Each structure stands twice: as C-alpha cells, then as structure tokens.
Amino acid sequence: MDDPLVIAGEKFASRLIMGTGGAPSLLGLETALLESGTELTTVALRRVQTGTEGSIWDLLQRNRIRALPNTAGCFTASEAVLTAKLGREACETNWVKLEVVADDISLLPDPVELISAARTLVNDGFTVLPYTNDDPITARKLADVGCAAVMPLGAPIGTGLGVLNPRNIAAIVADSSVPVILDAGIGTASDAALAMELGCDGVLLATAVTRAADPVRMARSMRRAVQAGRDAYLAGRIPRREDALASSPADGRANLDLAL
Amino acid sequence: MATTVKVNGEEIAFDGPASVSDVVDRALDNPVGSSVARGIAVAVNNDVVPRGSWRTTRVSTGDHVEILTATQGG
Fold first, then answer.
1. What is the pLDDT at residue A256?
2. In the prediction, which pLDDT does B37 show?
3. Of B39, B69, B73, which has the smallest distance from its Cβ to A19's Cβ?
4. pLDDT exceeding 90 applies to what percent of chain A?
5. Mind telling me which CDD domains this protein's record contains (chain B) (predicted)?
6. Cβ contacts (< 8 Å) between A57 and chain B: which residues?
C-alpha cells in the first residue's frame, strides 16, 4: 500500500473518511460510498425501528467498509461515553468518532466535556477519534490524553464553508503527534484539497456528498481532491513571493526591436 | 408475575419473567429466541448489556431499555 493513512496502527489506502448522514436513499448512498473509495465510514446510534428495509449496517458489511460509530447528539461526557459503549457493542469495534457538542444550534464541540469523555474512553480501551474545534491547544490536550487522531473542524457541521482558519489547521498539523483529520465544513472539492495541502492526514465529510445535486459525481471528485491535495503536500509547493519571476530564460532573446 | 418494561419509550408487557433477549425479540418482531440481530446494542437503565449476556440478564418491571442500531450519521 503506497502512502497509507495509519491510525492506531491500522492502515487505510484511502484518506477520505465518509459520513452517511443526509443521504435520501440507501441505494444512492451505497453508490456514492463506493465511488468515494472510502474504507472507513461513520454511523450514528439511534433507536431501532422495525419494518425499515435494509440498513446502513448491512450496506457497510457487504462492501467491507469499516463502520466508525459516532456519538452525535451528545452534549455531556457521560452521554457520549454511554453512546460510545453502545456503538462498540452494536458495531463490534472499539473505534469511536467522539462528538460532544455544546448546543444544537452551533453544533460546536464543547472542549471541556470532549477532553473528559476522551480520557474516560481511552482508559476503557477505546480508539478515540475526537471531533474538535480548530484550536491547536485543545487538539494537543486530546492527543495528550491518548486519542488516536484529532479531527478539527474546517467550519461548522453542514455549512460547506470550507476551511475557515487554514493557519490554525496548519498549526495543529505542525504540532500534532497523531494523525489530523479535517472533519466538517467541507463544501466542495477544493476545500478537501486545501485541507490536504495544509498537511492534514485525511478528510472526513458527509453532507458535501450526500446533499450534492449529484452525490456519486461529487464522491468521485472528493476522492480525487484528497489524492491531489495529498500529492501537492508531499511534492512541496513553491514559496509565495511578492514579485513576478519569469520562468523563461532572460538570456538569448532575439533583437526584435523593429524601431531600430 | 407479569413484567412491564419501557422499551425505547414504549411499554412492553410480558406474562412472566423476561430476559433482555426476550425484550429484543419482541421489540424487533423476531421469532422467539432468535436474538441474533447484529448491529444492535442494548442498555438497561443506562448500562450496556453485552450481547453475550442478553439471555441471562433478567429485566424487572420499571426498567428502561434502550435498543439502538447503527443508522445514517455524519
């Protein structure tokens, strides 16, 4: 596997982690997930409903996409810890996308509850991937308590505003001892590419694909954007400069001054 | 003695004693004794009951049972 994403010792060929929220149909979602090339995909935990046809669980199983249960909808550490344990039981994995939000309007992470829940879950043997603010200090504290990755937001969930604070994301990347996954806020392919160019190890997105006019085409676009951004990061971009710099040689030009 | 528990917010009554397995079968419309449903997790009064303990864990009247499954989410 060339240049894999490695989280907690597990290797992934794809650096695009998908979410499944917002898709109007399971069939459309399945095609989009396959087109995205993702190997790790988030699911939420909700009360069972009888009589529904097919399930996201079956869909991921038959396509060998690993399920990453989240704790979406939790406002306190204790709710998130219980939800994580239910996710572990339901999805037969000790990996969790840890979300603890402060309110249901901003959907912004509550750093105090988040770090508390992360510490508890790490001590309980979970592999914790926390959704966090784009704050380098919170990210550092999450890594310090033993999280396997940190997942700062580009912009609030579902906004599609892209990477609002690229300098903070770059600072998190520069400081981080664990993989950095940009999570939330991606609107279109260039946002995903920018996140990767900033040095993120991966991108997690859902809405940008599931609510696009053509989710399958957008999934393909995101796959390519993440690959392109990663390549650009590894290739090393040129420094920015104030003045123009000719790329054609100045020497050996013909004398074409026809006024002579 | 009858057992009445609240499952995902709705009351379910059993004529006699009931296990978590029985509750899951009833709630999911499974044939009795077939609790093999994968992708499901159960909490009784906010404590997770591991799948391996469903058959041996009794529920008591007044218990709050939550049966959750993986669903679409970001």
1. 81
2. 64
3. B73
4. 85
5. Ubl_ThiS
6. 38-39, 69-70
Size of interface A-B (CB pairs under 8 A): 102
Find out whether A87 is annotated in a ligand binding site.
no
What is the domain range of residue B38? Answer: 3-69
Number of domains, chain B:
1
A97 part of the active site: yes
Residue A156 in this model has a pLDDT that exceeds 80: yes
Residue from A26, A47, A68, A83 whose CB has the most chain B CBs within 10 Å, to mutate: A47
Domain boundaries A5-68+128-235, CATH class: alpha beta
B70 half-sphere exposure, CB direction, 13 A CA radius = 31
Enumerate the domain spans of chain A. Answer: 5-68+128-235
Q: Mean pLDDT over all residues of chain A?
A: 94
Q: What is the number of alpha carbons within 13 Å of residue A247 lying toward its C-beta?
A: 0
Residue B28, helix vs strand vs coil: helix
| B36 neighbors B27 (Cβ within 8 angstroms) | no
Question: Domain of B44: which CATH number?
Answer: 3.10.20.30
Q: Which of A22, A50, A69 sits opposite B70 (nearest CB)?
A: A69
pLDDT (tens digit per residue) in B20-65: 999 998 888 765 554 456 788 999 999 999 999 999 999 999 999 9
Let me know if residue B61 belongs to a domain: yes
Residue A70: its chain B contacts at CB < 8 A?
73-74
Per-residue pLDDT, A142: 98
Instruction: Return the H-helix or E-strand segment holding A77.
Output: helix A77-91
Contacts of B57 in chain A (CB under 8 A): none
* Residue A184 among known ligand-binding residues: yes
